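Thread: "does anyone have the structure for this chain?"

Original post by V.I.:
We have the sequence but no experimental structure in hand. Need at least a predicted one for the grant figures.
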Amino acid sequence: LVGSRFGCGSGQCGACFVLVDGRALASCDLPIWSVEGKQITTVEGLGANGELHPVQKALIAEQAAQCGYCMSGIAVAAAALLAVNRKPTEEQIRAALDKNLCRCGSHNRVVKAVMQAAHE
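Reply from O.Q.:
Generated one for you, tokens below.
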């Protein structure tokens, strides 16, 4: 699996986010013993039956990525949000993604993509 990225190494950038029992957590800052017996999902496992997750499809459709380094963490965080809130407001999306840094400045396109995925 190569989707989760190493970014800052201190849990501050979100590039390494994985789902742990449905919650987006920074894998770089997560002791391995703390996830024993828990369900871990990386960006590769977001979709089902060989299909991309709606968030992944929307990120592509909105051309949200520039360099793409942050996108796996963003997709994981957005999928975690939509799993608990199918109709988030823009403010809720921004709050859910506030731990995901994008140096390319794609945040507005990312928010638009998550809004699109929420309406799918």
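V.I.: this helps a lot. The first helix runs from residue 54 to 61.
O.Q.: and Strands lie at 17-20, 23-26, 40-41.
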